[in-house]
Amino acid sequence: MVSFVCACGETIRKPKVRNHLQQRHCEYLSCVDCNETFYGEDYSTHNKCISEAEKYMGKLYKPGTASTEGSKQDRWQASVMEVLENYQGPLRGYVDTLVGYDNIPRKEKAFNNFIKNSLKLHNPSEIRKLWELVQSAAPATPEGASKKRSAEEEAWGGWVEEIDRALKRRRTAEKSMPWKQLRDEVVTRYLKKAGKAGSKREDMNDVMLSKIPKAYLSKSANKVSLPSDKQ
Fold first, then answer.
1. Which of 7, 31, 98, 181 could potentially form a cystine with 26 if both were Cys, beta carbons 3.0 to 4.6 Å apart?
2. Where is the Zinc finger C2H2 LYAR-type domain (predicted)?
3. What residues contact residue 105 under an 8 Å CB cut-off, 6+ apart?
4. pTM given for the model
5. What b-and-e string marks burial along 6-43, b requiring 16 or more CB atoms within 10 Å of the CB?
6. 205, exposed or middle or buried, with CB in 10 Å at 0-12, 13-18, 19+?
7. What are the residue boundaries of the structural domains of the chain, listed by start?
8. Alpha carbon of 42 to those of 14, 26, 76, 215: distances in Å?
């Protein structure tokens, strides 16, 4: 997991950056590994950085199997962190603790044991809810990938219909997504299927957000949810 050195001199792992910036109001961060500097929210896109081997071996570095496996875990961890950071609910206390770990298991059995040992949580129902939460960040299964391909082949259906489609494809019981993730997915669909020559993503981002029905918005979280009567 990437870590940053803040302008105030403190070193922070990515999941804790947002709270740190809200408290300290620092102007910029620098990545510990690559030394790149980020201003404002720019750090949020920096999910994976070079390894120690890459850093010091340069062009001589050759990734191996371990590196590939590591990259899978890195991608999983980055996706999970995005979901956890946007969660607002009754398990928020456990979620806040969970974001401090950079080794969250990808398999349910291992995850359950991890939660019991690390969070000292033994309630099966709450453990299940945490698993469903992190699973919403998991890559699509072959069946899910097939559905995604089918969705990509569908004609553009209009902003609200595309928002509904994206939310319905979620694998969790609660059909919701962080608004930034939803925006990026729907705008990408628009640019592929209906975008006119010269359409800019930045402009379409604003258009898409203006099309989200108010009934879909959460008052307590940065997410968009499909109303129960549409699920």
1. 7
2. 29-56
3. 111, 113, 114
4. 0.42
5. bbeeeebbbbbbeebbeeeeeeebbbebeeeebeeeeb
6. middle
7. 3-60, 69-137, 159-225
8. 12, 13, 20, 30
d(CA 56, CA 204): 41
Token reading at 192 = 């592929």
Specify the CATH class of 3-60 in words.
Answer: alpha beta
pLDDT in tens, 139-176: 544 444 455 555 556 788 899 999 998 888 876 667 88
Structure tokens at 5: 């050195």
Residue 66 pLDDT level (bands cut at 50, 70, 90): very low
Residue 156: what residue type? W
Backbone angles phi, psi at 156, to 5 degrees: -60, 130
